[in-house]
Amino acid sequence: MHELGIMTGVLEAATASAREAGATRLLKVTLSVGEMTEAIEDALVFSFEALVEGDPFTADAELEVRMISPRSRCLECGAEFEHDRFHMFCPECDGFCTELLAGRELQIDSIEVDLPDD
Amino acid sequence: MQIDMKQPILDKNDALAAELRQRFADNHVFVLDLLASPGSGKTSTILATIDALRDEFNIAVIEGDIASSVDAEKIKAQGIAAVQINTGGACHLESAMIKRAVDVLDLERLDLIIVENVGNLVCPTDFDLGENAKVMILSVPEGDDKPLKYPGVFQVAEAVILNKVDTMPVFNFDRAAFDDAVGRLNPQAPIFPLSATSGEGVDAWTDWLAERIRAV
To answer: Do residues B87 and B65 lie in contact, with contact meaning Cβ atoms separated by under 8 Å?
Structure first.
């Protein structure tokens, strides 16, 4: 359950960027989270809701989590393929030397904020 | 208004880990991050590893636990430098904690730092500590199905230690099923079956590790 720690960092970074832009409120945070990480969507949402509550600047903010499916490239035959957390072998040639192209993301994509002139 | 950030969530941790990695490289120190469940024999494995490698290498241990200094005391009793990190409830170590521990160690004199992460098969896998390798320990009593339940840790590990092999007959551990599951998740990772307390199989593991240490 490290989602609380992760989300604390997310909100710190999002709040800093929002304030830097002169915003009066944080409205939304959008994250990309790879399915190969150990971060669970429900726990991220729960942590976010618990953390935004205390501060009027963040209290109305919503969270969007884009879960990213794992995708790999086979280093033997070059095939690119999507897979789940458990099966990373190449479906074309059964090769096991594969390179993960996507699925380990933990990224703040963007935020939406309220500016005084909006 | 929308503001694009495209900022990695763990960028503070990762930036500090990169700094640490450079510092370790400059001092030719190999750093091993050991991941395992509570009670899998991390400390016993560390003690057996120290025993096998202490003639050739200068070793220090960083112990991560939620509370207490029980493990660090065991290491210090062997005459090895040990730094205890108490995470105070946190389920994993982060690079800022490692930095504080490393600051009190004499890096110039060291060849190997073993980091005993908090006993947990989930959270530590996402955190780069600046280590050269993450290695995981699974102990036989935990069961051969663990790769299916905790794939992440088996995927980030560069090697898998199977500890307490002397208890294999008691626990109905299906070695073939375990090897097969690990092989599917992480085909390049060697598996080292051993018993840290009896010493059986420890050589193969420490030979592998020694080769890695000599290479840095």
So the answer is: yes
Q: Does A90 belong to an annotated binding site? A: yes
CB-CB contact of B85 with B99 (8 Å): no
| Domain annotation covers residue A59 | yes
Other beta carbons within 10 Å of B67: 10
Residue A85 in any domain: the answer is no
Q: What is the CATH number of the domain that holds A35?
A: 3.30.2320.50
* A45: number of Cβ within 10 Å: 16
Distance (Å, whole) CA B155 – CA A38:
12
| CA atoms of B173 and B92, how far apart (whole Å) | 28
Q: Is A97 annotated as a binding residue?
A: no
* Cβ distance of B155 and A112 shorter than 8 Å: no
Note whether residue A88 is domain-resident: no
Is A93 labeled as ligand-binding?
A: yes
Indicate the pTM of the whole model: 0.86
pLDDT digits (tens, 9 = 90+) for B62-104: 998 888 888 889 999 999 999 999 887 788 899 999 999 999 9
Look at A109 and B4 and tell me if their CB atoms are within 8 Å: yes
Closest by Cβ to B91, choosing from A1, A23, A36: A1
Looking at domain B26-214, its CATH architecture is 3-Layer(aba) Sandwich (3.40)
What the block records as the tokens of A88 is 């990373």
How many domains would you assign to chain A? Answer: 1
> How many CB atoms are closer than 10 A to CB B208?
14
Asked casually if ipTM beats, i.e. exceeds, 0.90, the reply is no
Residue A13 belongs to a domain: yes
Q: Say if CB A85 and CB A49 are below 8 A apart.
A: no
**Residues near A74 by beta carbon (within 8 Å), at least 6 away in sequence:** A80, A81, A90, A92, A93, A95, A97, A98
Residue span of the structural domain in which A64 resides: 3-69+102-114
C-beta atoms of A10 and B9 within 8 A: yes
Chain B residue with Cα closest to A28: B2
